[in-house]
């Protein structure tokens, strides 16, 4: 158990709908990352938050947004869903000390999103 | 831009065989970090190791060993005396120095099947 929790585990929805994925980082971790894993794209970085502020953006669609709350949990919002959005969405957290990159990221169990 | 290549896509071995998983990376940074993650059939991503670019010492942890060679930009992973429980997808990942911006760039992953 990595200490990172994600809910829900599975989500089935229809095209055009909006969903929210939730992540709670490990205790003490200030940084939260979201990744998407799909068969064609592999594991791709979406976005990072550090202590409530957006820190880095990757290949995140405009239909997707995220935020990190004062209690450090994070939510990833996916709207106007398309079939191609079906994927496994991971949240990860890390301590991120000075020179942040060295700190390994611990991943949650993921949310499997199926868009029908 | 950073890139991780895992040229092997699928490897199948018989239990107790040794197996090496290859990883080649590209980066313009002089300071960077390399990681290996394991994704068993259950789907979670499990952190295995982190290696700094300025530390080329090889590392051994039980049946696992890692060979980091800066000259060839490779960070290979060897499992000695493989077991069925080692069956999983293994990802190599790279993170460049960037303060709190430490997103991971993953390779496509190698599916390892260990047959009894």
Q: What's the SSE pattern of chain B?
A: EEEEEEEEEEEE
- Proportion of beta-strand residues of chain A: over 45%
First-to-last CA distance of chain A: 31 Å
Binned, the helix content of chain B reads under 10%
Strand-residue proportion of chain B: over 45%
Helical fraction of chain A: under 10%
Q: Largest chain interface and its two residue counts? A: A-B, 31 and 28 residues
Largest sheet, strands/sense/barrel of chain B = 6 strands, mixed
From the N-terminal CA to the C-terminal CA of chain B, the straight-line distance is 41 Å
Task: Output the number of helix runs of chain B.
Answer: 0
What does this structure look like?
The complex is a heterodimer of chains A (116) and B (116). Chain A is built from no helices and eleven strands. Chain A is mainly beta. In chain A, strands 2, 4, 5, 6, 9, 10 and 11 form a seven-stranded mixed beta sheet that branches. The model of chain A has no long low-confidence stretch (mean pLDDT 92). Chain B is 0% helix and 53% strand. Chain B is built from no helices and twelve strands. In chain B, the strands form three sheets. In chain B, strands 2, 5, 6, 10, 11 and 12 form a six-stranded mixed beta sheet that branches. In chain B, strands 3-9-8-7 form a four-stranded antiparallel beta sheet, with no helix packed on it. Classes of the chains: A mainly beta (116), B mainly beta (116). At the A-B interface, strand 4, strand 5, strand 9 and strand 10 of A face strand 5, strand 6, strand 10 and strand 11 of B.
């Amino acid at each position: 158990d990595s200490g990172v929790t994600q809910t829900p585990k599975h989500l089935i929805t229809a095209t055009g709908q909006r969903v929210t994925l939730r992540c709670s980082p490990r205790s003490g971790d200030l940084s939260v990352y979201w990744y998407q894993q799909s068969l064609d794209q592999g594991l791709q970085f979406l976005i990072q938050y550090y202590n409530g502020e957006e820190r880095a953006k990757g290949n995140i669609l405009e239909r997707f947004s995220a935020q990190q709350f004062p209690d450090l949990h994070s939510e990833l919002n996916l709207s106007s869903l398309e079939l191609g959005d079906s994927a496994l969405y991971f949240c990860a957290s890390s301590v991120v000390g000075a020179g942040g990159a060295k700190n390994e990221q611990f991943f949650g169990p993921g949310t499997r999103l199926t868009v029908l | 831009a950073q890139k991780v290549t895992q040229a092997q896509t699928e490897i199948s071995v018989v239990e107790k065989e040794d197996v090496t998983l290859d990883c080649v990376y590209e980066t313009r940074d002089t300071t960077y970090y390399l990681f290996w993650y394991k994704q068993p059939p259950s789907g979670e991503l499990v952190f295995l190791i982190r290696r700094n670019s300025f530390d080329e010492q090889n590392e051994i942890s039980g049946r696992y060993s890692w060979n980091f060679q800066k000259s060839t930009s490779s960070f290979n992973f060897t499992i000695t005396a493989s077991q069925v429980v080692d069956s999983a997808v293994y990802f190599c990942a790279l993170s460049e120095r960037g303060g709190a911006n430490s997103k991971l760039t993953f390779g496509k992953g190698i599916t390892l099947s260990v047959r009894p």
